[in-house]
Write a structure and sequence with these properties.
Keywords: ATP synthesis, CF(0), Hydrogen ion transport, Ion transport, Membrane, Mitochondrion, Transmembrane, Transmembrane helix, Transport
GO molecular function: proton transmembrane transporter activity
Family: Belongs to the ATPase protein 8 family.
Number of strands: 0
Oligomer: single chain
Pfam families: ATP-synt_8 (PF00895)
Protein name: ATP synthase complex subunit 8
Helix content: 40-55%
Strand content: under 5%
Number of helices: 1
Shape: elongated
Radius of gyration: 28 Å
Largest sheet: none
């Protein structure tokens, strides 16, 4: 069965993972976001209890 022969495809997969890990990933992780998150103060909403008619 030729599809079980990993000879040509294993080298291609290994090369592509090494390119991703060593070249592309550090370049992508070095970008800064254009819209960084803002630390907004947490506002707590005042809630009132529900006026149940049967109590």
């Amino acid at each position: 069965m030729p599809q079980l022969n990993p000879n040509p495809w294993f080298l291609i997969m290994l090369t592509s993972w090494l390119i991703w890990l060593l070249i592309l990933q550090p370049k992508l992780l070095s970008f800064t976001t254009h819209n960084p998150p803002i630390n907004k103060p947490s506002t707590t909403l005042k809630t009132s209890s529900w006026p149940w008619p049967w109590t």
